[in-house]
Each structure stands twice: as structure tokens, then as C-alpha cells.
Input
Amino acid sequence: MSAQALVEIHDVNFAYGRRQILKGINMTFPKGKLVAIMGLSGCGKTTILRHIGGVLKPSQGFVKVDGQVVHELDQDTLYRLRRKMGMLFQFGALFTDMTVFDNVAFQMREHTDLPEEIIRDLVMMKLHAVGLYGTQDLTPAELSGGMARRVALARAVALDPMLIMYDEPFAGLDPISLTVVGELIRRLNDALGATSVVVTHDIQESLKIVDYVYFIANGMVVAEGTAEEVRASGDAFVRQFVYGEMDGPIPFHYPGADFNKDLGVRV
Amino acid sequence: MAIVKALRGIGSRVINAVWRIGYAARFFFKVLFYSGMSFRRFRLTVREIFFSGVMSLIIILVAGTFVGMVLGLQGFETLKRYGSESALGSLVALSLVRELGPVLTAILFASRAGSAMTAEIGLMKTTEQLSAMEMMAVNPVARVVAPRFWAGVVSMPLLAALFSALGVFGGYVVGVIMIGVDSGQFWSQMQSAVDFKGDILNGVLKSFVFGVAVTVVALFEGFDAPPTAEGVSGATTRTVVESSLLILMLDFILTAFMFRGD
Output
């Protein structure tokens, strides 16, 4: 991970009320690379994305994007920075009162003075890139889950961002859509020369496409490495995660009182 | 200990209610502050006027006609006792323009358009559309909330005026056409009794205030709704209940200032 970093997360701590979510997270996302953040549901993966986007402020530490400390920016500067970011939300978060075309054109219309003919051509190119040219007049309700995710992807890259963030892009997709979305994430990253952060728990799909992986558990980075290193890892947590074993460092049982004692069984 | 617990429960509810009022007030000022886009890109507001105003027309027009017809019947029955059936026109018009027009329109508007605004914004929040907008460097208050606010504020007085107009027509149908009150008396009494500034402008002012109240409640409830199915349904119910009560309360305060009997 020696290339110049676009995003740096330094000793970030964060709590929702009294519940500590992130405990001293350090991560680096080099320019042009596709990096995954993996971990169990609810372990704080999405919270990290929200810190990068400046939606949440760390209680300690900082997140630097393109050399700027995100939580210190005023709203105008933060919005200027966000224009260079794209984000794909878990279920697409398409605007349901607009057509596919208007969804993809949204940022172009909000942030540029481009004439409508050029916006039309750009939208068609973005839709073609995700294989959905021809769906421009449909509404989000008429799309399947996989198609909605691809439209959201086209919308996320509408302004050719330098950083693309994906929040669980593989959740709830059929095997074909899974491969398509995975391939698109890799291709778009390379074609745009962007940097991508993928938050996911779909290990098999993401290991096919990513350059580097961070594993999070209990709000901390517990392991990291390239896809090959992860596959060959002897780390108990990584092995449990990669091979989906029921028991291991992440216990099957919720930590509660002694079950035998509760039933009155003498062991 | 049970008493302490109960007191603590009451205390926390009161504190929560005060917090919410504070949030709502701050939200209102935020909406005003970010209203620039609603006027610069007026078509955004026009679109919302269509959804909240034009789409409410049917319910407002039908309700207005029937309320006017009932006023015609009841007014005639009462006025006949005093031998002043000829005053029916002024009774119908004054009741509608001063009270029933603004109040009933606002309550119907809260149920028809207010609840829809809450549900729409609540669902946009639940499905992360508002977060997506925020991440795309577009302020959701400026882009989504403010145009709806101004649409409500513009629509309400217009709808109340139409409600009153159709109400007068309903009163005319029942009083003049069906019962047989003299048409000339009906209209001339109305014309001499209704004052433009004292009655009509005050009625418009009332409906404007109600428009602000209903849309702020509806938009705040939607924006503040917990992002779950129950959260959105609860917020929608609260919109109708809170805005109806708020309308009746504000109506008393406004009436006390406008028509003090002097």
C-alpha cells in the first residue's frame, strides 16, 4: 500500500451515545485502488463510510480525503468535496419520484450548467456503461433489484468522481447480478481512474475484484492484506470469515448467562 | 419508588416534548433560510403546488359545496324564526369567509396533502434517498423540503378561497333555487354585509397562517420520522392530529385578535 493515499483514516474513534462503534481505526486507501472493508453486520463498516463522506464526526482522530481533514470543513467546502465523491447506497436509494433518466441526470442538473442535449448524451453513455441503455424512461419501481443497483451505480459515477464508495453493493442480488455488479465496480474504477471503497460482507464476490481488504470486528481493524494474503491467511478470524465457519473467534452463542445453570442442569 | 418512577416518566415526556418543539422551530427557520432555491428554480415549487394544491381541488370543492348547502338549510331554518330569511346570503358568506372556509380547508388540506407530504418525506428518509442527496452535495432541506413548504403556503389561501366560493354557490342552490329565498336579496345582503378588509382579507390571512402551520408540521414530522414502517405511519398520524389541533388553536387566537366584537 505504498501508492499515494487519497483517503487516510487516522486513529478514528466514534460512539453512538454510550455505545462505542469505532475504536482507533487506521486505514489507507491509495489512489486508483479498490479496497474492501469487511466485517459482520453492525460492526461499524457503514459508519466508516459516513465518516469519509463527512456525515459523522469522529470523537477522536481524523479522516483525510484528498489532503483535507473532512470533519473540519465548513458546509460549502464539504459540499465541494462531496461533488468529487460518488456513493452507492445499500438498496440503491434511487429517487422514486423520478425516472431512471432523471436519477442519473440529477447531479448534472444540480451542479453543472450543461445544456439539456449534452446531459442527455452523458446520461445515455452512463446507462450504456452499466448495460442499461434503453431503460431511461422506466421508473425505479419498474426495475429489478440488480437493475436498480446498476442505475444507482450510473448515478454515483455521473460526475466522474475521484472516490466511489459502495455500501453493501452485493446485498440481496441473484448470482448473475452479483457478478455483473462486481465486474462493473472493478471496470468503472479502472476506467475512471478513481479510488473505490467497498463495504461488504460478501467475501467470495469481493475477493475476485479487490486490491486490498481490511477486516473489522468490534470496531477495530483485526486483519488486512491483499486478496491472495487473505485466502492464504492463518488468522483464526479471517479463516472463520472466509470459510463461513459457525464457531470461532466470533462465537455462535450470544454472550449471556450460563445456559445450563438457567435450566438447572448440573454438568 | 413507583411514584418516583411515574414522576420521572412524566418529566422525561415533558422534556422530550419541549425538545421537539425546539427542533421544529429550528427546522422552520432552516426551511426559511434555504428557501432561495424554491424561487430561483420556481418549477420545483410549481410541481409541488400541483401535487398538494391541484390534487386537493376535488375534495376541497366538493366539501365546500356541501358545507354551503348545509349552511343554506340550517341558516334558513334559524333565520326564519326571526323573520329574517333575506339575511341568508350574508350569513352564508360571512360564516364561510371568516371561519369555515379557512378552518375546514386547512383541516382537509392537512389530511389530504399534509399526510402525503409526511409519508413521502418519511419514506424518502427510510429508503436513504435524503442521505443520498446529502452525499451528492445537494441539501435536502433546500431541494425537497422548502419547495413543498412554499407550495403549501401558496396553495392554502387559494384553496380556502375556492372552498368559500363553492360554499356560497351551495348556499345559493339550497336557499334560492330550492327553498325560494329572493335572489336579489340574497346577493345584495351578502354584498353589503361582507367587508373586503375586515372579512375577506382576514380570512385570507387566517388561511395563510394555517398553511404555514400545516406544512411545517407535515414536513417536520416526515423529516423527523424514525426510518421504519411504524415510524412513518406514526408520523403520518401525528401530522393529521397535531395540525388539526394547531389549526383550531390558532383559529381562536387569530379570531380573538381580528374580530373582538367591537
Observations:
- Chain B has one domain: 34-258.
- DSSP finds ten helices and no strands in chain B.
